[in-house]
Amino acid sequence: MAQQNTSEITLRIALDENRIPEQLTWSAQDGGIDNEDAKAMLLSVWDSKNKESLKIDLWTKDMPVDEMKIFFHQTLVSLSDTFMKATQDEKMTATMKDFCEYFAEKLELK
User: Fold this and answer.
1) Buried-most residue among 2, 9, 47, 104 (CB within 10 A)?
2) 100, exposed or middle or buried, with CB in 10 Å at 0-12, 13-18, 19+?
């Protein structure tokens, strides 16, 4: 059997006494990232056996709401791009992009 290449991404979450995230750091050696601070993270994985998405959404208690709104907008735009790459569905991608514009407009991000 051929040797399989692997890559590791590490997330570290420091919690307060109430188990609320105080600090998020992440490392991705292949990407040159080593214990970089983050204020929020969204992680989704697909459980093929049960045909469902599993997720972890975390943010630190000092994450500003205005930055959270920007984070969500940028994540939605990124998901639109990823959807296009994965499905080549131009019509739905355009609809998703329209929603991203609407989202940004309503939150006065643009």
Assistant:
1) 104
2) buried
Sign of the alpha-carbon torsion through 81, 85, 88, 89: negative
- Give the pLDDT band (50/70/90) at residue 61: very high
Tokens of 73: 């907008």
What gap in Å lies between CA 11 and CA 56, rounded to an integer? 11
In the chain, beta strands by DSSP E: 9-15, 21-28, 33-38, 40-47, 52-59
At residue 3, does pLDDT exceed 70?
yes
pLDDT class of 2 with cuts at 50, 70, 90 = confident
